[in-house]
Amino acid sequence: MRLSAFWEAFRIAAASLRANKLRTGLTLIGVVVGVAAVIAVVTIIKGLDQTVASTFSSQGSTVFTVSKLPQIILSREDFIKANKRRDVTEGDAEAVARLCTACWRTGVAARSASVVKYGDQKSEDVPVRGVTPSMFDIEDIDIDAGRPWTASEDQAAHDVCVVGVDLLENIFGGQAPERAVGREVRIGGRPFEIVGVAERLGTIFGFSRDNFVLIPYPTYRKMYGTKASLFIHIQVETAAELEEAQDQVRAIMRTRRGKTIRDEEEGFALETQDVFLNLYGKATSNIYLVTIGVAAISLVVGGIVVMNIMLVSVTERTKEIGIRKAIGARQKYVLTQFLIEAVMLTAIGGLLGVISGFLLAYIISFLAGFPLLLSLWSAVLGVSVSSIVGIISGLWPAWKAARLDPIEALRAE
């Protein structure tokens, strides 16, 4: 087919779509919805992927924890089973630090929640963690203003703390971190001096990571006692040493709990950050599958609508087709004409779907507070798939138009 003839077919197709604006718009809806759903979800999940990866990259593959309960519990039965375990104690932490030769750093953390007050301002249910000084390095906690507490302050169980920036907004009216250092707040009714303010960590899945107070573990023990189970954090120098360190720690903890090789229940949870990444991966993969299903249904419906509209167009333009064939138009020209019209219709729908999908992803990412990562391949895929739908749905109407007998077509009313 010559270029001039192709261009003429393109012009006629565009004129036909402009002449039936309402019908064209209604036809596009199914294609637009399907493509927009895929574009929006792919864009949002790519942004979430980056957020989740950066959230856990500070510890990466060199840190793991030992605790009584797993960090993620998916059933009531698992909770009841894990809750029967012995608490993780200071003795366990000391044994790990002493006997694990592959461990580079070890730290202890205990968790609670309390009311934090400053003057007549207060913030309720603030997570309070008692940690050893090594936890600042293990968890890669950077200080924006002030300092961590010293070893002597830790050993003497001084009432000092490092706070997250949310507390500056909640009880200090959003003052600069430097102005909060040195001030006295009351945690659970006990006065504490703020010696440092941690750098902002941001939010993930709409939850702030900056609402916390860190205090020396000996101070925590003095306030809350030693009944609660602890978290032991272990860090190795390189990722290659992680497996060896885990094996050593597992052996140490099993020995302290009197477990034999035959015992499947270890009596503790040994986990890396992969537990969160794996759960996130499973959740997003399900979202992908659901979205692909919705998009597929929308595109199938859109394709059926396009086919019906093209059949209506063939019926309406039967006489026109008869005239064109009577003056010498070949079957392939008529076939190409209607195929171009169907593909143009769905390609426009694909383009509008890409724009709508990116716009929807931008709004959601802005409200949720995670980065927007535009994907060129998803845009190309969206337009390409919609164009393929146009070809498939336009084949039968185009073939029907091309096969019309010119004499019968001219008789049509």
Summarize it.
The protein is of the alpha+beta class. The protein has helices at residues 3-19, 21-56, 76-83, 90-99, 135-138, 151-155, 165-171, 177-180, 217-224, 242-256, 274-316, 318-326, 331-368, 376-402, 406-411; strands spanning 63-67, 105-118, 121-131, 143-146, 160-163, 184-187, 190-198, 203-204, 207-208, 213-216, 231-235, 269-272.
What are the salient characteristics of this protein?
alpha+beta, 57% helix, 2 domains, 16% strand, 413 residues, two-stranded antiparallel ribbon, elongated, 6-stranded mixed beta barrel
Topology (elements, then pairings):
Layout: H1 3-19, H2 21-56, E1 63-67, H3 76-83, H4 90-99, E2 105-118, E3 121-131, H5 135-138, E4 143-146, H6 151-155, E5 160-163, H7 165-171, H8 177-180, E6 184-187, E7 190-198, E8 203-204, E9 207-208, E10 213-216, H9 217-224, E11 231-235, H10 242-256, E12 269-272, H11 274-316, H12 318-326, H13 331-368, H14 376-402, H15 406-411
Parallel strand pairs: 3-10, 5-7
Antiparallel strand pairs: 1-11, 1-12, 2-3, 2-6, 2-11, 4-7, 5-10, 6-7, 8-9
Structure in words:
By secondary structure, this protein is an alpha+beta fold. The protein folds into two domains: 3-54 and 278-411, no CATH class; 63-272, no CATH class. 57% of the residues lie in helices and 16% in strands. It contains 15 helices and twelve strands. The chain has helices at residues 3-19, 21-56, 76-83, 90-99, 135-138, 151-155, 165-171, 177-180, 217-224, 242-256, 274-316, 318-326, 331-368, 376-402, 406-411, and strands at residues 63-67, 105-118, 121-131, 143-146, 160-163, 184-187, 190-198, 203-204, 207-208, 213-216, 231-235, 269-272. The strands form two sheets. It has a six-stranded mixed β-barrel with strand order 2-3-10-5-7-6. A two-stranded antiparallel sheet has the order 8-9. Strand 6 (184-187) and strand 7 form a beta hairpin. Helix 2 (21-56) runs antiparallel to helix 11 (274-316), helix 11 (274-316) packs antiparallel against helix 13 (331-368) and helix 11 (274-316) runs parallel beside helix 14 (376-402). It is elongated. The protein starts with a helix and ends with a helix. The model has no long low-confidence stretch (mean pLDDT 81).
